[in-house]
Amino acid sequence: MNFLELLQAIPSAFIGLCLFLGLMVGSFLNVVIYRLPKMMEFTWRQQCADLRGEEIALQATYNLIIPRSACPHCNHPIGVFENIPVLSYLLLRGKCKNCGAAISPRYPIIEATSGILCAYAAWHFGFGWAAVGALLFIWALLALTAIDFDTQLLPDDITLPLLWLGLLFNLFGVLTNLHNAVLGAMLGYLALWGVFWLFKLATGKEGMGYGDFKLLAALGAWMGWQMLPLIIMLSSIVGAVVGITLIVAAKHGRSVPIPFGPYLAGGGLIALFWGKTLTQGYLQLLAAP
């Protein structure tokens, strides 16, 4: 019995492996969340300088791999035993080993969330390509959620590969058929694009960014056009509740924009796991006398 046959034969082993992968990738997602917006900002500055015919000072290599992770307060390089997902944060009591500065609790939260969701995906879908797709889907949405909260950006470097991966997986009918996936991508983009222009024509303001269009298109590519109404409804309800709460309780100005990407991502995750059940329940409720 080879390793893959073992995972297929013992569901608990597959769930444990996905939990481990989720924790490890969650640690890397923290790097993506922190560094990708900075990389994008440098690229934009370089492009603006090129348009002005100016030269921009070269900076040291900075990408998702280089330089090595370090404490932002004292620049202490993070060692292997200081970078164990969740566990290192607990052992260090949320402080840098070198300078004692507080470490943001978001790091272990992202790691733990990734691990738990990946383990649940393994249990929910079982051994197979659907679980593999779910892991990629979860990791992309976690990164997009945190980046949008921080910067109100949904990077094309994540949304577009997510869209194409959804079409690729559904080329083989993993979550839905290719016809539904293509329609989902098209209608997902056009739905928010239409809302954007209606709002702009009515108010003269832009109500959302183009990244939201691409994200909903990606969600449609993964789950098909039938899930789009559910995703939009869930994300709108949660977004409205959170927005009203921020305005009332946190004195968040009405003119201050609230990122919509995290709510789309949340709606997408709910649809991934329970979309068919919720849709069937809703249709049965409507059909009831």
Element order: H for helix, E for strand: HHHHHHHHHH
Helix content: 55-70%
Sheet bearing the most strands, described? Answer: none
Low-confidence stretches: none
Number of helices: 10
Q: Please tally the β strands and state the result.
A: 0
Question: How far apart, in Å, are the first and last alpha carbons?
Answer: 54 Å
Shape: globular
Counting helices, strands and paired strands, the structural category is mainly alpha
Proportion of residues in extended strands: under 5%
What is the overall pLDDT average? 89
Report the radius of gyration as a whole number of Å.
21 Å
What attributes characterize this protein structure?
globular; 289 residues; mainly alpha
Brief digest:
The chain is 70% helix and 0% strand. By secondary structure, it is mainly alpha-helical.
